[in-house]
Structures are given as C-alpha cells and as structure tokens.
User: What shape does this take?
Amino acid sequence: MRRLALTMAAALAAVPFAAPASAQVREGVSARALLPAALRLVDVDVPEEPHAPVRLYYATEADQRASLLADVLVGASPEDARAAMAELVRTTSGALGAPAGAPAGAVGDDELVAFARDNVFVALRSLSRSHDLAALARHASAAIAAARPGPPPTAASSAHVARDPQVGEAVPIVLSAPALAAHVTARGPGYARRTPSGWVLARTAEGPIDLAVVVVDELLRRR
Amino acid sequence: MGRFVALAFVVSLAGCGDDPPPVPIGAAAVTVPVADAVPDILPVLQAPVDLLPAADIELEGFEQWPLRFPARFHQTLECAIAIERGGEIVRALDATRTADTCEASWDGRGDGGARLDPGVVRAVATLSDDSGERARAEATLEIVRLGIGRIQLVSEGRVPLLWRKMGGELYGYYVAGAGMAPWRIGPDDGDGAAAVTLELADGSPRPLPEIWDDLLSPPLDPGAADGVEDDVRNLPTAFVAGSQIEVVARLVTGVAGAPASGAPALHEVRVVPPEGTALEGDPAFVANGDVTVVATDRVPAVGRYDLELRWRFEARAAGGDWTPMPGGIVTRHRLYGLAGFPVFDYDDVPHRAWVDVVDQVAEWVEGATADPELVAARIVEGVYYELGLVYDSERGASFYSSYPRGSWTGASFNATRFMERDNGSVVNCSDAAAIVSSFSNMVGVDLRYHILTHQWERGFDLYYLQAIGSDSFAASPFRSGNPAFSYHAVTGPPDGSFFDATLALDGDGMPWAAPHEVLLAEGLPAMDYLSALSPEAEQIRIQVDEKVRVR
Assistant: This one.
C-alpha cells in the first residue's frame, strides 16, 4: 500500500522534474502580474534561508485576511526551480497528486498546486478552499512565460543605519535597493524590527552589530 | 494641684508672664489654670503622646490625620483645635471633647478645601470659656508627599521578555531586558511644565499604571527614543521558577509645580516592607533614594502570578516612637514563572521568551510544576487539544516550517505567522514539532526536533493513530487512505525520549487493531514510541537533534 502510494512522490524526488527543452531563464516575475488583479497582494514574507521561496499573501475583496498563499522562487536557472519543487515534495509527509487543469508537471490537489516553469517555482495554497488553484496556476504560468528573458540580477543588497543608535534607542535602517519587502536581522547587542515605515535597529548595549538583509524586489527576486 | 504636678510633661503655665520655653518639635503644651469657676479642677491640655508627626494626605487610603490632645477640664470649657501656618489659622477643625481628650480629625486641607502645600504646620488645641482661653497645647505637624517613582525587580533568574508585534506590526519585536525597571511613573512630554513624578500638572495624583496585559505590543510613545512608553508603564516580568526577587523601589517626592518639595525635613519617615517581603538594608525614606525588600516566597512554578505590594510608611519625631501613617501605595505586578532560561541554538532576537507564548504556557501549566518534562507534557497536550489545529490530511504539507534545501537540519519556524494563524490552522508534523519545541525552548525546556525516516525506503507504514484535530483513530491520517509517512518529525529532550503533538498513538499494546487508547507521547522512550507508531519500527532511523530557528 505504502510503496504504491508513494510511487509518484518518490519518482518526483528521485528525478526532479526534468526541464522541458524550451525552458528559459526569466529576469523575474511581477508580483502584481503573477495572479489576477482580483487578488490583492497584502503581505510578503522574505525568508532568510537561501533557495527558500518568497511567500506572498493574497486576499480577495471579500476577505478579512489573506486567503491565498503563493510561494515563489525566482532561481538562477531552471534547475533551481525544479529543486524547489523537489523540496516541497520531500518535506510533505503524505503524497502529492497531479491536479487536473494545472500547468504541465504540476503537483498538488484542490488546495495546493505547485509547478516549476523556466527558472520560477510557484506553489499556491488556498486557505479558504474557495480558489480555483488550477486556473490560478495557469495564470501564474502565463505570467512567467510573458516575463522578460534574461538572468536575474546577482548583486546582493545591503543595509545600514544613518547613525549608530544609543543604547535604548531605535534608528531607521536604510536598504541599498528598492524593495517589495525585506527581512533584516541583527547580530550583536541589538536587534532589527519591522515598523510601519520600515525596519529599525534597536541597540541594547554597546558593541558592534552586524546587519543581514534579504530583499525581494518587484520581480520577486531575492537580492 | 497634686494632679497637675504629676503631669510632668506640661511645659509651662500660661499667665505667668513668660514665653513658654522651647519645646521638642512635634509636641508642645501650655496650660491655663482656671482661676475662678471651679477651683478644684485645673484645666490641662497636654501635647499628644501618640501624635502622628508627618503624613501624606494623598496616599491611597488616607482619610484623616488624628489629633488627640489629652485633657482634663471642667464641663463648661470649650475645646477647639485649629491648624496654623505662619501664625495664621488655615483650618478650624470641629473638635470634640471626651472625658480626657480634646480631639479632632484633619483631612489635611485648608478652610477652602484646598490641599495645603508640603511643609510644617502647627495643630493648636485650646480650652476656653466666656472669659477667654484657659489652656493651650500645640503640636508640630509635617505635611509630606511620598511616593514611588520606579520599581525594579532584581533576580539572577529574571528572564528578558519579547513582545512580537509592537504597534501591530508583524516582526515588530521589542525586548524588555532583565535590567529594565518594569514599573515606573513620571511626567510625559505633554503633561505640562508643572507635572511631577507623583502628580499631574493640576495637582491631582498621577494614576498608578495598571498591569500591561497586551501580550503583543508594549505601550507606545512616539516621542520616546525607541518608540516605547518610558514614563508610565507596568510591564510583566518573567523569572525562572525558584528565583528570589528583590524589589527595589525608588522613593520620590514633589508636588505639582514644586518638584523639590514634600520630602521629610523635620521628622523621620521610613518605609514599612509590604506584606510578603522582608526589608533589606535601610528603610529610611530619602528622596530619590532606594529601598529594597525581598519577596519571602520564591517564584513557585511555571505560571502567571499577580503580585500586590502595599507600601506603607511610618514617621516619628526625633527620639520618638514610630507611628504608622494612614494610607499607603499599592503597586501591582505580573510575574511569569518559567522552567528555565530560554534554550535556543541561536542567540539573536527573536530567540527570546515571547510574552504571548509564555502567557499561553503559563495558562496551560497553571503553577502546577516547574519540572521541565512535565511542562513539556503540558505543552504537548495544549498544542494537541487546545489550539484548534488540524492535521493536513490531504497531503501532510508544512505551513509554518521549512528546511534548507535537501537537508533536515536547520529547520525554521515562522512562529510569528503561526501565532497569528496567518497560514491557517492546518499543520503537519514539522509544524507541530516546531510549535512544541519552540514553545518549550521559550520557557526554558530543552526540546529538540528529530526526523524519522525509513532507513532505506522512502517512507514507513503506520499503525492506527489519531491525528491532531481528529476525534477518532484511523488507519491512515490521510483522506487518500495511504497508511504511511514519507517522514515524521517529533521532539524530545536530550535523554532521547519523545514528545509529539502531531498525533496520538494507540496505547493499548495492539496498535494494529481496534479498540484504541489515546497515548500522547510525553516523554515516551523512543523505541516505545516507534513500536506504537509503525510496524517498521526497527527500520526507522532517528536523525537530527537540534532546535528550530524561530522567526
């Protein structure tokens, strides 16, 4: 029973989604164009871990809070996107099927659809069970296909503060590049926190503080 | 006359033509002998022997300043008591006469009802009749203004707390370190120039801060250096169970418009340790000085405790006896008891004790224990039964946790999103393990996560189990009926036992068949756990022994 049930997942993990011959590399995919306009992008989580997808939170007009999650990774290559797909399969303790109507190679079901196209991985999750994920996946796939070809930028972002805060003080953190979203961590006698106007650095004691920042731009590229 | 002589503390006789000699501060008396009406009773007024020499009429619970002048006099004499300052009567009191006293109570206010400024006044008692004053006694009183401006709770076991959503912003971390005084009052920028620590600009007492019970954000003050209210606050604190707490109170004085006034100048004032505490060091009330008391009970267990401290004061004239002041100051404090200091593999923020998690665990444990394994067991039960979580029976996917590509080590848990349930209430084993272990880590319980995989196959078969959110056992946690996990995540302390909130095992010894008996893994030996989980227990590999990274 188990062996049969896990056959597909095992196959996916062992031979992770062979790239179609036409696979290209896209500069990125617009967060606004990824899904239909009826879905509002309401929040973004930027992971610290390399190779981890960005998580986008979408809501409909009727939603009080986000009802759809989209995990998106814009990789350097199609292999990156396929590896992200394999990672989803690996860390799912049950089995993922092949959802009807979703883009070719997609895995999932009515509440989760994941696929890799070119160098972009997308996983959609409906929290309200009210979304046609296959249709949304097709929309996302088309948005990727329409994105400009070319390698994503590789320059890393950085962050700094205009002046060193006093102990007990918080000062704004300045990012080196425009960001759709960012996540900043501080190591040393202080910490970073998000505020409505951006990230700030709070100092708790004297000593050097290192800032680490991960930025996602409008094309969902980690920088 | 003999009786008169016996009253040796009477310091002078009126009518002898001389000024009375100097008298001790706080007590003076003058008698006027009755010359005619009733010669066998000489009227006598005596300085009060139990006089309260100093008081603060703004103390909570203050009602009256008792003024009792021992007296002996004829029924026809009138008894009167007045308060004088600078030679002027500022308040005429309604005095009453008993068999042996002339007494009144004073509310500390002048004739117009206004509070008198701090400083010295004289209470003057007189006996008189139609012919005039027949006896007089005086007492020196000192109006003081006493208060506490800051309370620090000191202990080697104090644990910094983190609010995770300052101002309503996700990832809006705010850490209150162990060195922060959790309780303080003081004027804010907008209070007006006359405001002082103890009083608002209009002279009304500054309200004492209630316990701050917002579990997500500290109080805000846009004008403060770090955006957090730093003038008036009463934040909860956390301590390792068994900690002894020193309470250090900063003593302050001052009234609106006169910040330097109100300190005891003529009389001695001391702090009376609140019930449940013992004095450490000098109790003398010195403006801007500290007084320290030690809580007699140690923090008992993991739980939420509200502490009420009733601070009272005593005063005395030099060389006199201490007399309790009416009223006092009641400060209230919220303490959390933890099993230990947070135990993470990471030391950066937000790897701290989160207030809302600590509060949740405190509610679950309810002061029943500080034993780490028992606390962990309660966390497992709380997560399994009480958070409304449901296993992802479609596929077993993670919603709040993740691993680095291709690895089971270095797991991350988005606790911020989980506490908001932003990704829903559906979880898998990695999520449940992350929840249990991170909650435990925050309250000082050393739980790590482990990954269970088949040694050579991709997945292992399962016995009957009851997944989180389900009310019955099933041969498979999945709707597909697939009775297998490709992997499973559990938690455990260093001793190798398992704690698991993802599922309940069938604990009746025959997990392959009905009937079923709920067995939550709460310190279950690893092999016992595996034997109840899977018919392939011997082939299951246990890997990874580390704590999750929290965001």
